[in-house]
Amino acid sequence: MKFFRAILVLLLFPSFIFSQSKQWVNFVPNSNVNCQAIEGQYLWIGTDNYLTRMNTLTGEKEVFLLGYIINSIAIDQQGNKWFATRDGLAKYDDKTWTIYNTSNSELPGNDVRSIAIDKQGNKWIGTRDGLAKYDDKTWTVYNTSNSGLPDNDVESIAIDQLGNKWFGTWSGELVKYDDKTWTVYNTSNSGLPSNNIFSIAIDQQGNKWIGTRDGLAKFDDKTWTVYNASNSGLPNNMFFLITIDQQGNKWIGTFGGGIAKFDDKTWTVYNASNSGLPSNNIFSITIDQQGNKWFGTDNGIAKFDDKTWTVYNSSNSGLPNNMFFSIAIDQLGNKWFGTAGGGLVKYDDKTWTVYNTSNSGLPDNDVNSIAIDQQGNKWIGTHLFVSVFREEGVILSDVKEESFTKPDHFTLGQNYPNPFNPSTTIKYSIPVSGNIKLSVYNILGKEVMTLVNGYKEAGTYSVQLNASSLPSGIYVYSIQSGQYRESKKMTILK
User: Fold this and answer.
1) CATH of the domain at 463
2) Which of 454, 451, 486, 448 is nearest to 469 (CA)?
3) 408: domain range?
């Protein structure tokens, strides 16, 4: 086993972290983002050039110059991070790096494509040269010579609730392994209609819904049921997306055939000819809390409430263009749309707001993915950066409850240390539960950072402030809760 010391760089450059606005923060410049994983308050980002761990609360970042292209990330129950790279498998336990490759371990190949960790903590590692299981002591290698694998190139791994491992191989065949028996599903020995598999969804009954190039397959672990354009209401046989709503209805997005809904009895097809759907090419499906379906197409966005279609495009709304990669819905019900070349769009059911490279801190107008955390920060994946955005100010403070004893009055403590560079801690107490806002202002009274903005239970809290983005000077931090307001001064000395 080889131990590896990664080159660690702490990023504390003000012009990089908060240069555009306190609302926007851009991370991971000049590198293609391949994968992300969330570990508590940390966001791990794998790129073509390096690995970044970012504290989403304090804004502190650590960059590890591994020198490998990182394909995927998995985190085990002990908090160890496992990274699939094109030059081996890397493990990081927050202190030590361990690199596994064909020279120092039984890893069958150095180009690691996928990782999954089962409930027992076993690591399942797919490479281009075979599959490996590692229990932290022993390596077990599976390949076409000693197992039921039909292909040594294992591109994807999923583990179901029963512990069965499902492997997708380069040849396109689907493999199930229950730790005893290998079962290979392909067009020759099963009801699978095609060896080209695009999507898999598992419903509440454990049925597997598999979207292929030549039809949709349902598998209940005993029986295959294939739906295609010839024997069902499906509009065509190429399926990229499957989404299951709360009633168990399957919503199937096709390329060229529109949308099919299946309630296990009846097929209903919506397309550009018989509904308000603006295009038959479906790239994203999202269902909001009211049950409305939102479809992203290459000719606008469609909303469907099971009765009425509403279409939004660049002609009748504030949308900048008609091509959409991603849709996300926040806790307030706002819709966030990622476009191809048009930036990020917010819609609150009344007003459209467009963020792009010209009017905001968005680093790139191609928005590939959107995720929203518990603080309301929007994490935006583009071709150039991972950005974080929050309209009221990005919350990048580490808030900890200090005591379970209910205080009898409001207090705002003096920050310590003071003066400081770049971090300090602020303590406050609230005797009653309610909405709290704790903000930082410059000497001109302009709000420059939001530390807390939301509901808090009665108690005593501490907040770690990272002021890497702020210049030296005197600042005021102020707390507000109902009629209570209090402010104190602090000094940043760099």
Assistant:
1) 2.60.40.1930
2) 448
3) 398-492
